[in-house]
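User: I'm putting together notes for a lab meeting next week and I want to include a structural view of one of the chains we've been expressing. I don't have a solved structure, so I'd like a prediction I can at least talk through. The sequence is below, exactly as it appears in our construct file.
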Amino acid sequence: MPVIPFFDYQHTFTRFENELTEIIVDVCRKGAFIMQKELDDFEENLSTYTTSKHALGVANATDGLIIGLKAANIRPGDEVIFCSHTMVATAASIALVGAVPVPVEVGFGRTIDISSIEPAITPKTKAIMPTQLNGRVADMDRILEIASAYNLVVVEDAAQALGARYKGKTAGTFGVASAISFYPAKVLGGFGDGGAVLCQDEKVFERLYRLRDHGRGLDREIVEWSGNTRLDNIQAAILDFKLGHYQEDVSRRRGIAEIYSEQLSEIEEISLPPGPNDDISYYDIYQNYEIEAIDRDKLQNYLRDRGIGTLQQWDGKAVHQWPKLGLHASLPRTEKFFTRCMMIPMNMSITDKDIDYVCESIKSFYQ
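Assistant: Thanks for the context. Below is the predicted structure for the 367-residue chain, given as structure tokens.
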């Protein structure tokens, strides 16, 4: 019986072990640890890849969202709308700038339900924070229309969507600012925490630059209080190398998704995410492959017994379902979704034979 892990962390290193070891040793021998050439190179290459005017490396995507909200002038007491089908970090970033997270429903494609945004808007609403989830961009045309109509800003949580596109435009380039994650399990993952912030406006960039590094501007003058959320230089060098192989990784994931679509689409008991070629408006990178399944828990146990790793994202709860966070929302569609959702293997260590085995196992469970 094969063993197919949900994610193989060791493979992220062993796949390019010689090259990565050389990079790490080179940076360490130079003593180039903080904000050196490797970071500058990575930021420039990331900016080019995303077609973003600016890209800044930060310590993690949560910090990126926090400083992005601050640069967008979100203040204590402001309300920010987000989809509850997301990591708690999305809402936490809102709360940590003193604003109020307002959760709304999950919709098609596992991203924010567009129809739930306007009913959640109040006189205190100042922003919408769409999560570009599982490597898919939300319907940004409609979100930007709503934001314009109500004079709201958009700050994107693009943590899972580096390189994903909607109508040719890259995730993270729609709003005032956005954050990307380089957590090890991401499609572009480092060997620890890491992130980046993207922005298109020069003044926003200057503010983000200061917020990243103790309030210190490009001219080295300190003009405001801030903390430290710099991406370290070793991680930047690793990520810059891996960025050179990124598009082949995305292509492989899209190929895996196509196999899942072909082999699982006839199973009535499960609902699949949109396939790679379902709608030319979307270019998904498939950070995750999240299905909805009847008898989800029994299916997970069955797959586990057959050596297949699966995962319920975020411990199987939407953000508003953690009572001590005090969000007190009723989101029936999202709550139903979380009784059925699970993720099946989608990573660079699995083979086509592994994918066939996963599909055969799911089919055999329902047969």
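A couple of points you could mention at the meeting. The chain has two domains: 11-243, 247-366. The CA atoms of residues 257 and 275 lie 7 Å apart.

User: Perfect, that's what I needed.
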